[in-house]
């Protein structure tokens, strides 16, 4: 073991300045250390002999947030302007994601999913509001969001942790969904906040795990945060899921059934077998047989999850129970569209006015109508992890695409009619 003490601002080994004050003693494995790392990653200074040695005690300040000095380049799918799938370009050696604040974690992405939000973000959806968030959080340093990496969720391995990270360590297998302003997960590496992730379920593969985080976090925001559903009070309550066969629907049905709810859902005729296999008590084909009449003849609902929007929202409001706590939660919110069309502030004002109209619609029906949006949620992911490990929730994956076929995966999602999720295997570049 070689010791490389540095005193004051001068490295005793090479007499160079600029290493800062002595402030920490740490043990680490070093593969490749030279003066270029000074002031960049961990300020250390070593002779060729010291470089050859693999384990060292390092004296010196920790100027940055962690001690990892790994990949500086990574492969990723990027867009350089908004548009259609043709805008997606595979870049073999773009600047690797790096930790910039103490509670961040660098993960190696093994798999990620493609969500409708990725397809829409590729087209510029939400850019005005999300750019405000990007600027606030320092993700738009050169004044532009481009090149932009899409992808909101992942399953992978922790490579490096910031100094404030206590819950995770290098080597942990984790999953999660990232806030919309962060550079995305359709890449070899991604930086996430420790609050956005949890340990991955041990009983499923990365390509299965990656299908869950974004839809789980959104469903949790809708049913639990906004809908105020609690596991211990859920049993026997009546839930209607509008759109049961897609990513959100297949997850929501399983969550609700594992909490003992009675679940009715709408879907196409060819998806009825799928949603009943997931536990739905009643499946209504929305394309034939007068679905609204059928739904109207049923007992009223305590909670409605609306993944469809538009006219469906107002029609479904009339199916709410006329008791105080019944709620319709729609995840088809106009907030991003309004801010794109009108600008951020007027868009927010218009959204607030829309919310007022929806509140009146809810009051008319006896319950309340609310909006929910995706919220990253590490503690919800941890609850979901346990439910997956106890087989209460299963990943529903329609198709897994190799990393080099991301545009085909986007096409699949934009064509709609999904039965579960579309996943990308980022470790398969065949
Ligand atoms: N606010 C947020 O933060 C947030 C987050 C996540 C998702 N979302 C939105 O929520 C929606 C659903 O997301 P997702 O990931 O589940 O999408 P998805 O995987 O594409 O699934 C949508 C499903 O709905 C079915 N469907 C279409 N029209 C229907 C109707 N009228 N009645 C019943 N089912 C219908 C589709 O199948 P068929 O067409 O074959 O019937 C498909 O299976 C999307 O619009 C998405 O943008 C919002």
Automatic annotation (TrEMBL):
Its main location: mitochondrion. Residues 83-424 form the Enoyl reductase (ER) domain. It holds the Pfam family ADH_N. PROSITE patterns: QOR_ZETA_CRYSTAL. Keywords: Mitochondrion, Oxidoreductase, Transit peptide. The keyword Lipid metabolism does not apply. The keyword Hydrolase does not apply. It is found in: Mitochondrion. Belongs to the zinc-containing alcohol dehydrogenase family. Quinone oxidoreductase subfamily. This is Reticulon-4-interacting protein 1 homolog, mitochondrial isoform X1. It comes from Aplysia californica (California sea hare). The gene is LOC101864612.
């Amino acid at each position: 073991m070689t010791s490389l003490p540095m005193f004051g601002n001068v490295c005793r080994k090479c007499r160079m300045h600029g290493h800062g004050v002595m402030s920490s003693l740490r043990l680490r494995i070093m593969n490749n250390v030279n003066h270029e790392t000074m002031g960049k990653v961990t300020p250390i200074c070593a002779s060729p002999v010291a470089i050859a040695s693999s384990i060292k005690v390092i004296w010196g300040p920790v100027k940055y947030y962690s001690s990892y000095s790994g990949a500086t380049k990574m492969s990723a799918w990027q867009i350089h302007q908004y548009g259609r799938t043709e805008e997606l370009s595979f870049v073999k050696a773009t600047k690797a994601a790096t930790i910039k604040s103490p509670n961040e974690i660098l993960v190696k992405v093994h798999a990620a999913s493609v969500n409708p939000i990725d397809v829409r973000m590729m087209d510029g959806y939400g850019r005005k509001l999300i750019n405000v968030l990007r600027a606030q959080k320092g993700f738009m340093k050169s004044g532009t969001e481009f090149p932009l990496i899409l992808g909101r969720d992942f399953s992978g391995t922790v490579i490096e942790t910031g100094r404030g990270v206590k819950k995770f360590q290098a080597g942990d297998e984790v999953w999660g969904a990232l806030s919309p302003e962060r550079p995305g997960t359709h890449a070899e590496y991604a930086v996430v906040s420790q609050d956005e992730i949890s340990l991955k379920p041990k009983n499923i593969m990365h390509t299965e795990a990656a299908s869950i985080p974004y839809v789980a976090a959104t469903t949790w925001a809708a049913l639990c945060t906004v809908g105020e559903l609690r596991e211990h009070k859920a049993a026997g309550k009546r839930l209607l899921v509008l759109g049961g066969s897609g990513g959100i629907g297949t997850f929501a049905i399983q969550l609700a059934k594992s909490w003992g709810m009675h679940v009715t859902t709408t879907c196409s005729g060819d998806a009825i077998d799928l949603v009943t296999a997931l536990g739905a008590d009643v499946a209504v084909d929305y394309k034939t047989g007068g679905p609204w009449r059928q739904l109207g003849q049923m007992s009223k609902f305590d909670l409605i999850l609306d993944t469809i929007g538009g006219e469906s929202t107002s029609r479904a409001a009339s199916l709410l129970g006329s008791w105080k706590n019944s709620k319709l939660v729609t995840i088809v919110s106009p907030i991003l569209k309004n801010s794109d069309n009108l600008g951020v502030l007027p868009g927010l004002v218009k959204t607030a006015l829309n919310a007022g109209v929806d509140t009146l619609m809810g009051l008319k029906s006896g319950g309340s109508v609310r909006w929910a949006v995706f919220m990253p949620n590490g503690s919800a992911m941890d609850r979901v992890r346990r439910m997956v490990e106890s087989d209460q929730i299963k990943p529903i994956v329609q198709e897994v695409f190799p990393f080099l076929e991301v545009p085909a995966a986007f096409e699949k999602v934009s064509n709609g009619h999904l039965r579960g999720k579309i996943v990308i295997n980022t470790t398969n570049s065949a």
